[in-house]
Amino acid sequence: xxxxxxxxxxxxxxxxxxxxxxxxxxxxxxxxxxxxxxxxxxxxxxxxxxxxxxxxxxxxxxxxxxxxxxxxxxxxxxxxxxxxxxxxxxxxxxxxxxxxxxxxxxxxxxxxxxxxxxxxxxxxxxxxxxxxxxxxxxxxxxxxxxxxxxxxxxxxxxxxxxxxxxxxxxxxxxxxxxxxxxxxxxxxxxxxxxxxxxxxxxxxxxxxxxxxxxxxxxxxxxxxxxxxxxxxxxxxxxxxxxxxxxxxxxxxxxxxxxxxxxxxxxxxxxxxxxxxxxxxxxxxxxxxxxxxxxx
Length: 295
Known about the structure:
- The chain is of the alpha+beta class and about 300 residues long.
- It has a domain of about 90 residues: SH3 type barrels (Roll), CATH 2.30.30.100.
- Helices cover about 35% and strands about 30% of the residues.
- A ten-stranded antiparallel sheet has the order 6-5-4-3-7-11-10-9-8-12.
- A hairpin with a 3-residue loop joins β9 and β10.
- α1 runs parallel beside α6 and α4 runs antiparallel to α6.
């Protein structure tokens, strides 16, 4: 473009169709911001709820190697830290286990004897709410599971939408790296929101099979909760050749531990009788017990 005036001769050239803030650039900025916020939210949600329930308590981590690390637990989405009361070797004050090292963990153990009066009282409150929960608590748990299923569905919708947009909009497709990262975070964060078999035994004593070095051992306790990767048992007991655990709560990796069945007699009925009814069996398992837990 050339501009003439009486005193000034100016020649400037502007490339046709060029703009600093064109639509492609704005889409890129929006995607980066959205992906960053989305990943931050996902990372916040990725702390396992079973491990998180032991946060700030003194626990012992039993490793597959036979080593036992004991300290006060701090949990983040990238791993756990055990903070020692006294320095180890006069230098180390804590030990960190990163998430990619979780496969080395055999148990998270919280011994009741390691709880102070305040934490013991808090645990007993949780225990009373957990063991044979009443109908109101089961309804609230079902509502929570419903919203988790909705959350997982929204992640599926996001992944399907991003795949559709890559083919429909070239500017969107050019930011595939950001979208791929967000998709990976979404997939890795999807937890097992609902397992009907396990859900039936929440609040009941169960028997789990623990697999270690090709052998199986029984672990007994009250099933408090579960996630996609862990089981949480209260008042657990475990006996093996090298380990004896009692008067403790456990968090167990599901890769090595599976709930095998009910571990208590909730009602007197012969399940092989001809008049056995499955719906009655399920109803009686969920029915609140009148047993009181000793203080």
